[in-house]
Design a protein that fits this description.
CATH class: Alpha Beta
Distance between the termini: 27 Å
Order of helices and strands: EHHHEEHEE
CATH architecture: 2-Layer Sandwich
Largest sheet: 5 strands, antiparallel
CATH superfamily: Molybdopterin cofactor biosynthesis C (MoaC) domain
Structural class: alpha+beta
CATH topology: Alpha-Beta Plaits
Strand order of the largest sheet: 2-3-1-4-5
Radius of gyration: 18 Å
Number of helices: 4
Number of domains: 1
């Protein structure tokens, strides 16, 4: 199951109860702190189609503007997508787009709140939804679009402090 040799090294899964049942974590005893997270999603698409995406010249319209709104909306509704996530009032969400190679578009979603639990899932959901929206709007021009990885880049706040992806 886990590639660890010692049972004491196995991670404690907070969303699994003692009997193995899925559960929502009780965060009522945690401190309210400012929490921020940034996640990224990579979209691989043909260079000419990415040119059209960035120029806003695809038949479905402005892909970047639509994907930005989709990412913000999705981040705000993460608890409706992910069953064990707490509903959070987000103070701020930003979606950014950057071409990182001729056929690669990196999408970054940053979410911020003042709450008892983190916003990593909100940032990842926002990045994923923005990437899926790019796919939806560009699929007629390129059916071979690939999305991934979707990953946490950075998070701050809470008991566990700051995490920064290496590399």
């Amino acid at each position: 199951m886990w590639p660890m040799s010692d049972a004491s090294e196995q991670p404690k899964l907070s969303h699994v109860g003692p009997g193995g049942d899925a559960r929502m974590v009780d965060v009522s005893g945690k401190d309210v702190t400012v929490r921020e997270a940034t996640a990224s999603a990579l979209v691989r698409v043909s260079g000419p189609v990415l040119d059209a995406v960035l120029a806003g010249s695809l038949p479905k319209g402005d892909v970047i503007a639509t994907a930005r709104v989709a990412g913000i909306q999705a981040a705000k509704r993460t608890s409706e997508w992910i069953p064990m996530c707490h509903p959070l009032g987000l103070d701020w969400v930003r979606i950014e787009f950057q071409r990182t190679a001729p056929g690669e578009l990196e999408i970054r979603c940053t979410a911020k709140t003042t709450a008892r639990t983190g916003v990593e899932m909100e940032a990842m959901t926002g990045a994923a939804a923005a990437a899926l929206t790019v796919y939806d709007m560009a699929k007629a021009a390129d059916k071979s679009i690939v999305i991934g990885p979707i990953q946490l880049e950075r998070k701050t706040g809470g008991k566990s402090g700051t995490y920064q992806r290496k590399g």
